[in-house]
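G., the chain you wanted modeled:
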Amino acid sequence: MEIKTKKQAKTIGLVVTVPTATCEDRHCAFHGGLKVRGREFVGLVKKTGAQKTAVIGWDRLNYLEKFQRYERRSSRLQVHNPSCINAKVGDKVRVVECRPISKTKSFVIIERLA
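Predicted structure as tokens:
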């Protein structure tokens, strides 16, 4: 008789709220073997069409010296969306850099802020 135990969420070295749900995702920072390092961004989830992938974006202002004005620019990233976090479109999330998961994904969602 096999008893399944809940997998304990490991600490990732950052001050974030640990997800209450568990997952079997090997690319999860809390329940898998993925280590996080490097850059950290906060953005809004724009799309969640692909499997376990989300597109996040954020706006920033860039100053133009010649016209003495600011222009609005936007940045987008494809990030891994673990099933324990399961961010939806419109959620504000925190992402952290990790090793490359695929050709375009090198970031993983670690916290859903709102």
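The two ends are 41 Å apart (CA to CA).

Shout if anything looks off.
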